[in-house]
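Q: Got a minute? One more chain.
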Amino acid sequence: MDQPLILVVAGDPSGDLHGSRLARELRAGGARVAAVGGPLLRREADEFLEDLASHAITGFWEPVAKAGFLLGLGLRLKSWLSSRRPAAVVCVDYYGFNRRVLGLARDARGTAYYCISPQVWASRAGRIRTLSRLVRRMLVIFPFEEKLYREAGVPCSFVGHPLLDLIPEPAARPPLAPPFTIGLLPGSRSSEVSRHLPVFLEVLRRLQSDHPGTRALLFASPHLPDSAYAAATGRAELVREEGYARRAGLDLALCSSGTATLENALLGVPMVVVYKMSWPTYLVARALIQVEHIAMANLLAGRRLVPELIQHEATPGGVCAAAKALLEDPGRYERLRGDLLSLRRALGEPGAARRAAKEILAA
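A: Always. Here it is, folded:
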């Protein structure tokens, strides 16, 4: 029997990571994989069509500047789908572009799956109606998402969170004591780094003044060059690692909102979460967001476990005060660490990519 051809489409670094693991499982199950994504999907795919993830297109206004590229890629995919007729199209997160891919798949009479749902529970719940028309099944990574889609009549399976395969349960840590090791995670996109890193470096300077010997590890995105972090030269060690060994040893993380906040939670690393956007993007987001928290640790817990400082609150003084409140209160610090580690139980069992691939291949 001919191998089924499956198209996997991811548009950001996180989707590239999880899409690559899904592609590996699909190929292990006997499929051929074509992909749009980033360097990790390029490595796993039999046929790689475009590096979309490295363009780092995000926000409400940023895609306008890349409209020509996105339009051209859409036209290429339309032609490819028409000529190649894949057995399935799998969209991984990245709703803005993947919404168009789903429409193209429908026009080509293809079968579409969506792995890692857009955050319809946070904003724009009307997207559920759109997805119900375009996908055969949602493959979701948070248990509350399955209930949401099923209540809306959308076929859905909870496959577990893919980070459980990447982050083993951490070993016990000694009690917190200075000097501290601080992690700087300013984000995976150049715009995030330019907004967050100056704040983080000033917070670091203040912490080092109060706690001599404190050092910092700056975790770099695989999609950005060293030059993107030039402001930290001589002030923080630049770290590029595929795993989490060095991150697991942090005492505290100063972290941009995003996947890194859940990674830190699974590692049991207390954090201060920060997010700054362009003001037009922030004003639009503020009007749309329907949840109380932005950090996934807080969303899963249903309460504010870790501090969140957004936009005008994300000042060096505010971030430093939140960091010191944790570092200088060992009891509060240890309670937070325990609360973060307990979130692992809410995310299912390891094997998310394998279960997602099994759902797709079975059809």
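A: The longest helix spans residues 190-210.
Q: Perfect, thanks.
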